[in-house]
Write a structure and sequence with these properties.
binds magnesium ion; 23 helices; Ubiquitin-like (UB roll); binds adenosine-5'-diphosphate; nine-stranded mixed sheet; Four Helix Bundle (Hemerythrin (Met), subunit A); Creatine Kinase, Chain A, domain 2; alpha+beta; 3 domains; 694 residues
């Protein structure tokens, strides 16, 4: 197969637009897309007609405004291209108005008080910067989603706004650096998506997987990930067959699936796309997650995008690779051959360093969520403390600038394997760091904190905004500078490093040593979503987001409420699921096994025999069974108390501080019981079945 033959065949990309639109309208549309000027309403009809013709040729009968509300989902409503002409005959129609704006009675999307149900009108508006696509007989049109009063109710709007803010502020700094050619700066993002694949039949036998996307019970299998034999391991046939079909589907939709491999945990895999403009990367990641699920279903598999489907093995993240590039083709975070002399690079990096240090809390918030709480800080996941890995070479350069000393230039050596038939190759100037939440990886930052199920929008728009702010401070200062600009820039860098170097750490972020060191340095540690979300109530953050017009005060307040409510809802469902599984499956199964065991023991006793080990086992099981029963009652009580609490802040705290510990207690008893009871008596598939029988 030639990938190029099918690539983007279902995407209304430039090529398709060119084919279906007049040259003049194409130019107008392109300049709208490239320079963020409003779309000429006259050509909207023409674009709609072209889009419809193209979509129909791809088998579409419907169109849908496709948006990303403030839950972890995408939303769509399908309308047929159906209309009647004057004579009452059916025709296929799609107008510019229908393309640009949609209206929906969207009162059941989370709005966090922004929209009372009596004014439930919401609007969707076409985002022409992200290509429309055809899937399953429907033309999908990427849109933003806002309230009747114009407040953003989605994830796309702040991202788009932040890209504009960063463009504006980056251009100002570039001018100060003597760059007069660049006219546009874009945020580029390349997400790496981790996921688990398990057998569908087994998946359907577990209520926790069905309802919560993760296991709430389960004792560790005899073999975990300690052999390191899954990471980059050979792809089993069933998995590689799945991956082929997924690639094909993604390619045809114009999603640039590039790298795939087995990940650290058994049954865990990864897919990375080639980076793209942040907004498009964000949409494409949503498409990727959806295709992962649907292809899995077709193949008799279940794709788990939850951050921590299994206790005790690595969870799934979504690494957000982030950089900024200019329309002149420069990647601003590329240090070039001589980083010490590259002021543009050093200044932008310094902006990043100060921004991340100042807004640790916002960045931490951007990766929060009940499901990621289970992952962060455990088995091979970044800790909940933000720091930056720069690598030795860059740290040396900044240290030299800080001390106004000479940079000792390190030439990277060749790697020679001592086998003459093997090529000798130049090694990178620094090694990688896989433990840092924000690692500089040579020409981009890799943010490793985000969870696998989340949209990349939140961290992307937060990083963009932080950068825009730091760059604006730098420009404000350079605007006023009278002396030598180069010198002034060096002073800025020096001051930033002096003030913010505490955020730099090249060591092992998973170590206890770092936990202690980070605390000494006064870095924030916000262990859970409930802690992290307070970032949205801090004056400095509200100021930041409203200054750059990313989110208004009311939009921030709504997100505060929505995120806390979402948190409580997730824990609520998990707790109820646990209660049901324990009460209806686990406890009855163990009781019935105990009965059987007791009968066997007494039968043997009757004939004068003895079953000592079984008696001991029965005692142990009964002990854990009564522990399970009492912790179940405790959980029910605490749950009732939390769920009936009205105040959403108090409620989230109750779930975190009372319900979660009770869930853990119940789980511990049940997981012990699972080990004591024969496999045939256990009411659902165990970890070995789930992780090893794909
Ligand atoms: P690794 O697992 O080694 O970190 P991958 O190849 O899996 O690397 O993923 C690297 C990701 O970074 C890819 O999605 C790639 O497209 C992306 N990337 C590369 N350059 C940039 C850039 N300039 N801006 C944003 N993302 C980038
Ligand atoms: Mg990778």
């Amino acid at each position: 197969m030639y990938i190029t033959d099918i690539y983007a065949e279902s995407s209304f990309n430039d090529e398709a637009i060119k084919e279906y639109l007049s040259e003049e309208s194409f130019k107008k549309l392109k300049s709208t897309i490239d320079s963020a000027i409003p779309l000429d309403s006259e050509i909207a009809d023409e674009v709609a007609e072209a889009m419809k013709k193209w979509a129909v040729s791809k088998g579409a009968t419907h169109f849908s405004h496709w948006f990303q509300p403030l839950n972890e989902m995408t939303a769509e409503k399908h309308d047929a291209f159906l209309s009647f002409d004057k004579d009452g005959s059916a025709i296929m129609e799609f107008s510019g108005k229908e393309l640009i704006k949609g209206e929906s009675d969207a009162s059941s999307f989370p709005s966090g008080g922004l929209r009372a149900t009596f004014e439930a009108r919401g609007y969707t508006a076409w985002d022409c910067t992200s290509p429309a696509f055809v899937k399953d007989k429907t033309l999908y049109i990427p849109t933003i989603f806002c309230s009747y009063t114009g407040e953003a109710l989605d994830k796309k709007t702040p991202l788009l706004r932040s890209m504009e803010a960063l463009n504006r502020e980056a251009l100002r700094v570039l001018r100060h650096l003597g760059d007069n050619e660049t006219t546009k700066v874009t945020t580029t993002v390349g997400p790496e998506q981790e996921y688990f694949l398990i057998d569908r039949e087994l998946y359907e036998k577990r209520l926790d997987l069905l309802l919560c996307g993760r296991t709430l019970f389960g004792s560790p299998p005899p073999k975990g990930q300690e052999m390191d034999d899954h990471y980059y391991g050979r792809l089993r046939l069933r998995i590689s067959d799945y991956m082929h079909e997924l690639d094909r589907e993604l390619w045809s939709l114009g999603v640039s699936a590039k790298t795939k491999h087995n990940e650290v945990a058994p049954a865990q895999h990864e897919l990375a796309c080639i980076f793209n403009t942040a907004n498009i990367a964000c949409d494409q990641n949503q498409i990727t997650m959806e295709s992962m699920r649907t292809v899995a279903k077709r193949k008799g598999l279940a794709c788990l995008l939850h951050e921590k489907p299994f206790k005790g093995v690595s969870g799934s993240g979504k690494h957000v690779n982030w950089s900024i590039s200019t329309d002149t083709g420069m990647n601003i975070l590329s240090p070039g051959k001589n980083p010490a002399e590259n002021q543009t690079f050093l200044l932008f990096m310094a902006a990043m360093i100060s921004g991340i240090d100042k807004y640790q809390d916002l960045l931490r918030f951007s990766c929060s969520g009940a499901s990621n709480d289970v992952r962060l800080g455990g088995d091979e996941a970044p800790p909940t403390v933000i720091s930056i890995f720069l690598g030795d070479e860059l740290c040396d350069i900044y240290e030299a600038i800080e001390n106004a000393s000479e940079v000792t230039k390190k030439n990277s050596d060749n790697v020679n394997m001592g086998v003459s038939s093997l090529p000798s190759f130049k090694k990178d100037t620094t090694d990688r760091n896989r433990t840092s939440p924000c690692a500089f990886t040579g020409n981009k930052f890799e943010f490793r904190m985000l969870g696998s199920s989340s949209s990349i929008s939140r961290p992307s728009f937060i990083i963009n905004t932080i950068m825009a702010e730091e760059l604006s401070i730098i420009s404000d200062r350079l605007d006023k500078a009278t002396g030598d600009k180069k010198e002034e820039i060096n002073s800025i860098i020096r001051e930033i490093i002096k003030e913010h170097k505490r955020i730099l750490y090249n060591g092992n972020n998973y170590s206890e040593e770092w936990r202690i060191e980070a605390e000494k340095r006064g870095l924030l540690n916000l262990p859970t979503t409930v802690d992290a979300i307070e970032a949205l109530t801090k004056e400095k953050n509200i100021k930041l987001l409203s200054k750059h017009e990313i989110l208004s005060e009311s939009e921030i307040a709504s997100r505060y409420e929505i995120n806390l409510e979402m948190y409580s809802k997730v824990i609520n469902i998990e707790s109820l699921t646990m209660q049901e599984m324990a009460e209806k499956s686990i406890i009855p199964a163990v009781e019935s096994y105990c009965g059987k065991l007791a009968r066997d023991i007494s039968a043997v006793l009757k004939v004068g025999g003895k079953m000592k080990s079984s008696e001991d086992k029965l005692t142990l099981i009964c002990h854990n069974l009564s522990g399970a029963s009492s912790s179940l009652s405790e959980l029910c009580e605490l749950h009732k108390n939390a769920s009936k609490t009205d105040n959403f802040v108090e409620k989230a705290h109750l779930y975190k501080d009372t319900v979660i510990p009770a869930m853990e207690k119940l789980r511990a008893y049940c997981d012990t019981l699972e080990k004591l009871v024969p496999k045939s008596e256990w009411p659902f598939p165990d970890y070995t079945d789930l992780m090893y029988r794909v």
